[in-house]
Amino acid sequence: MDSIDVSIIVLYIVITIGIGVWISRKASKGLDDYFLGGNSIKWYYLGLSNGSGMFDVSGTAWMVGVLFLYGAKSFMFMWLWPIWNQIFVMMFLAVWIRKSNTMTGSEWILTRFGNDRAGKASHIIVAVFAIISTIGFIAYFFEGIGKFMTIILPWDLALHFGDLSILTSEQSYALLIIFLTTVYTIKGGMFSVVATEVLQYGIMVVAGLLVAGYTLINYTDVQINSVITEEWRNVFFSWELGAHWGNKYQAFNNLIDTEGYKMFGALIGMSLFKGFFASIAGPTPSYDLQRILSTKSVKEAAYMSGFTNLILFIPRYLLIAGIVVIALVTLAPEMIANPDLSGADLEIIMPKVINLHIPVGIKGLLLAGLLAAFMSTFSAFVNAGPAYIVNDLYKKYFKPDAPNEHYIKMSQIASFIVVGLGVFMGFFADSINSLTLWITSALFGGYVAANFLKWIWWRFNGWGYFWGMSSGLIVASLQFVLDQNKGNFTPGTMLYDLSEVQAIYLFPIILGFSTLGCILGTFLSKPTDIEVLKSFYTNVRPWGWWKPVYKLLKTKDQTFEKNKDFGKDMLNCVIGIVWQSSMILLPIYFIIRDYPKAIVALVVFIVTSAILKFTWLDKVRKIPN
């Protein structure tokens, strides 16, 4: 590392922590200010903050690896999250959610199921889910930032006591960065998080543009075309993946065969199946939901969600595609020298490229940008998770009448506890990929059924929600234990076979258990109080099976109309997914110099943007402030 690069990184850290601590005085008024910024932050700042929070370093390293190996069609791997839940939020869910005027997702649940025993059970289980998912994501960040920093920075921070290894260098780096980020996040709450994330987003955009520019200047079409094939560029696919690489790089084809995604049609089919239900279920109770609840109004919640989609993908994929092109030209020939690539760690491609092939100055800015990506995402989760502990559990059930200063102090303590548990879990994770698949497929699989049904079915009640979420969480946790202990099972046994199944293919099983819990919990208990249902349906107005509630409201008010926009909303979502995909493919094709495909992606982006102006934006503008 050159002293210029080190100076840039140190300056970035000092400025970030300084801004976070300086602005923290605004968070001292109460929990609304601490967790939601007092609903006073402008929607475009929240959108920049939300986009910054999704620009994480662990996910970026993973996406670099899959783009390198699978080519342009790897953007569909993002559907595992699924990334187009942001489209569903933009089109209608942000409006539905913001109408609640609550602080957290579990507090929002009370508006749907009431405040009786069933409602409280649903309230508690969604808070528990939020806390577990936050801990899981912190473990994911711990794994990613440690691996990244160890390869980039030259100092060995491993800690030993005699012959006993206490901390590896990866773990020491991760603990250091996590500590620094936790300090300003806990000090300032949402105000500090948004202020620093807006700064961090700017740094990430500059870093992406610099890497893209460096790639375009220093690597030629001939160099790129000598490595990648037409299949690598192709976004279309058949049921089974063909050869993505030429004969010279056959080892990479062999690696694809062993990765578990050879049956690509099945993977995409499962991703679409899961993605539809997960997207309608709505955002999980984390930082994304907090941004929606932090907006000033329902209209601004919709604006913020649309803006997040617009500003996130192009700069992020300029960075990813630039790093991949450098890796294709410089690292692929080195990697192929080892013909056995089975088990190759594609997650280290990004830090290797930065370490060996990025020039002085750009390297410092890029590292500051990636560090910003980590810190922004991490701080977003650290702000969101403790809100559920303090507001939804501690304040509601243990100490409801304490002063605001007490609750803010408890929020700070809860933040340290959540971070500590996430770090502890990170010590036992195998890889970023294993955590990615567990979070996206298993953990979220337990979330989908209950949160899908809460919107569309009037009879679904608090006990159905509680048992649906509980059964999903239990099965997801068992899957994680199996995955992390797969080396301890005897081949040929049922436990061994289950541990070898990719998490995405277990999604239907987890969904099935969760749905069964929903149905049994609902029909073995009484319906939600009709006054609660009438209040919820009048306020939120979701589409779905609400006929009994609608009839009661219609008898009292003949002007009352139900939501008939299901078809329009779904059409907008399909257009939005195409729009979002064009913003991913455009920078990829531009950076690999496939200009005809880049022009097609640009045309698709312009056309879908124009359509959404009439079908979505004009509709949002009519929402009263």
Describe this structure in words.
- With 625 residues, the chain is mainly α.
- The protein is built from 27 helices and two strands.
- The protein has a two-stranded antiparallel sheet with strand order 1-2.
- Helix 5 packs parallel to helix 12 (264-281), helix 7 (117-152) packs across helix 8 (169-218) and helix 20 (445-456) runs antiparallel to helix 21 (462-484).
- It has helices at 3-22, 31-36, 43-53, 57-70, 85-98, 105-113, 117-152, 169-218, 221-225, 230-233, 250-258, 264-281, 287-294, 298-330, 332-336, 349-357, 362-397, 404-426, 432-443, 445-456, 462-484, 494-500, 507-523, 530-540, 547-556, 566-591, 595-621, and strands at residues 159-161, 164-167.
- Helix content is 73%, strand content 1%.
- The radius of gyration is 24 Å and the shape is globular.
- It starts with a helix and ends with a helix.
Strand proportion, as a percent range, falls in under 5%
The strand count comes to 2
Task: Spell the H/E element sequence.
Answer: HHHHHHHEEHHHHHHHHHHHHHHHHHHHH
Terminus-to-terminus distance: 52 Å
Q: Would you identify the regions where 5 or more consecutive residues have pLDDT less than 50?
A: none
